[in-house]
Design goal:
By secondary structure, the chain is of the alpha+beta class. It contains eight helices and 21 strands.
C-alpha cells in the first residue's frame, strides 16, 4: 500500500518544522503526531480547525481519511508497527461519526482509579512498542476526560553491518570517555553525497536496511545548528537541493567530514567508501503544547471553551496536555526507534610501476550529527534526531541486542 504523496509531504513538513526547534541531543517522530492531529482536526471547529489544518498541510475535511490511509500504509510496512488508542470517561458522549473513523478496537475507558488507569495506559505503550517506550507521555488527573494516543515502533537490520571499534576523533567531548565507533567499507560510492544548502554544506550517508527502512546520517558544517542540518535532510528527500553523489565528487576535502583520495596502484582495484560513525541511543520527552504553533494547537489549548464539537459536545473539550516519548538506537547490526504520543483533553537522527588508480572516499561522522529514519520507497520520515552523546565503548564488544535473537 502506497502512502499518498500529499500525506508524506505533510508529515515530512511537520518533521522539518519540529526539527527546526531542535537544540541538543533529541529524537522526534512527527509520523506519530500527524495522525492524531488529523483526527483532532476532523472533530475541531473554528480557529482550532484552521490551525490544525495548517499544521497538517491538508484541508481538515480530508484529514481523518488521510490519517486512516497513513496508519494502514505504515502498518503494512515490514519492520514497522503502529497503533492508535482512545480512552474516555463513561460520561463522555462521543460523536458516532468521529469515533467510527478511528481504527477498530481503539476505544478504552478512563476510570476513577487513576493509578489503575495509568498502569493500563503505560502497559498499552509498552506492548505496542515492544517495551522500547514504557509509559504514556501525558499526565492523568481527575479532570482528564479523553486520551487519544498513538504508538510507533520500527526495526531494521543493515544490509551491510558495521564493525565495532573504539572511536578515534578530534572532537574533544567525544574523546573521553572512549566512544563506541562503527566502521565499514563498500565499493558502492553512491551511498554518500554532498549538498549545498542555503545554510551550508551537508554530507548525507544512506545506511540501508533489509526491509526498506533506512537511516540517513547528516553532517553539516560546524557552524550550522541542529535544526538547519535536519531541515536540510528533509529538503534533500524532497529533492529541493541537488546532491552530488560519491562517484561524481572531486578529489580533496569535498564536504563536512568527507574527503576523496586518488592513489596509484599496481593492479586494478575497486573504489572504496570507508565510513566511520558512532553508535548511539537517544531518548527524549516532548511537551507538544510548549511548541503549540508548530502543531497547530494554539487555540485548542485554551481550556476556557470547547474546540472539538465533532468529537463531543458533552462535555465540550479542549487540550489539557500533549506529549511524546521517543527513542532511537543505532548499532553495528541495525536500528530501532519508537515513539508514543498522547493528547489529553479536559472539559472547557615506490614500488613497482603503478599503472592504475584507486579512488577512496573517507566519511567520518565523528562529531554531533543528525539522522532521519525513513521508508525508502515513499520517503516518509518516521523519526528524526540529533546525536550529541554516543554510546561509550564497552569492556566487551557489543554486537548484541535485540537482533542477536532473531
Amino acid at each position: 500500500m502506497r502512502v499518498a504523496s500529499a500525506t508524506v509531504q505533510g508529515v515530512n513538513r511537520l518533521t522539518a518544522r519540529w526539527a527546526g526547534a531542535a537544540d541538543g541531543g533529541t529524537v522526534v517522530s512527527a509520523a506519530g503526531v500527524w495522525p492524531l492531529l488529523a483526527f483532532l482536526a476532523d472533530g475541531a471547529a473554528g480557529p482550532a480547525r484552521a490551525e490544525l489544518a495548517e499544521a497538517l498541510g491538508l484541508p481538515a475535511e480530508q484529514a481523518a481519511g488521510a490519517a486512516r490511509e497513513l496508519l494502514a500504509s505504515m502498518g503494512a510496512m515490514p519492520g514497522l508497527d503502529t497503533a492508535v488508542g482512545l480512552w474516555t470517561k463513561r460520561t463522555v458522549e462521543l460523536r458516532e461519526e468521529w469515533a467510527a473513523g478511528l481504527p477498530d478496537e481503539a476505544h478504552g475507558v478512563l476510570t476513577h482509579d487513576l493509578a489503575a488507569t495509568r498502569e493500563a495506559l503505560d502497559a498499552w505503550a509498552a506492548k505496542r512498542t515492544g517495551e522500547l517506550v514504557d509509559r504514556m507521555p501525558v499526565p492523568l488527573t481527575e479532570d482528564t476526560e479523553l486520551v487519544l494516543a498513538s504508538a510507533l515502533a520500527m526495526r531494521t537490520r543493515w544490509l551491510m553491518p558495521f564493525d565495532e571499534v573504539p572511536l578515534e576523533t578530534a572532537h574533544e567531548p567525544w574523546a573521553e570517555p572512549e566512544r563506541l565507533g562503527l566502521v565499514r567499507s563498500t565499493a558502492v560510492l553512491d551511498r554518500i553525497g554532498v549538498a549545498e544548502t542555503p545554510h551550508g554544506s551537508v554530507t548525507e550517508l544512506k545506511v540501508l536496511g533489509t526491509n526498506a527502512l533506512d537511516v540517513h546520517l547528516l553532517l553539516g558544517e560546524e557552524r550550522m545548528t541542529p535544526g538547519q542540518v535536519l531541515r536540510a535532510g528533509v529538503d534533500l528527500l524532497a529533492r529541493r537541493w541537488p546532491v552530488v553523489p560519491g562517484p561524481q565528487l572531486p578529489y580533496g576535502d569535498v564536504g563536512p567530514g568527507l574527503s576523496v583520495v586518488r592513489e596509484r596502484c599496481s593492479a586494478p582495484q575497486p573504489p572504496s567508501l570507508d565510513v566511520t560513525t558512532a553508535a548511539f541511543e537517544v531518548r527524549a520527552d516532548h511537551d507538544l503544547l510548549a511548541l503549540h504553533r508548530v502543531f497547530g494547537l494554539t487555540t485548542a489549548r485554551d481550556t476556557r471553551q470547547g474546540h472539538f464539537p465533532g468529537v463531543s459536545d458533552s462535555p465540550p473539550l479542549a487540550l489539557g496536555s500533549a506529549g511524546q516519548s521517543a527513542m532511537a538506537r543505532f548499532g553495528a547490526l541495525g536500528f530501532e526507534a519508537a515513539a508514543v504520543t498522547g493528547f489529553a483533553a479536559v472539559a472547557g537522527g615506490g614500488p613497482p610501476k603503478l599503472r592504475h588508480v584507486k579512488t577512496t572516499i573517507d566519511a567520518r561522522f565523528d562529531r554531533p550529527f543528525g539522522f532521519l529514519a525513513l521508508h525508502r520507497h515513499s520517503r516518509l520520515v518516521l523519526a528524526a534526531g540529533w546525536v550529541t552523546d554516543p554510546l561509550p565503548f564497552p569492556e566487551t564488544p557489543l554486537h548484541s541486542g535485540a537482533w542477536e535473537n532473531e
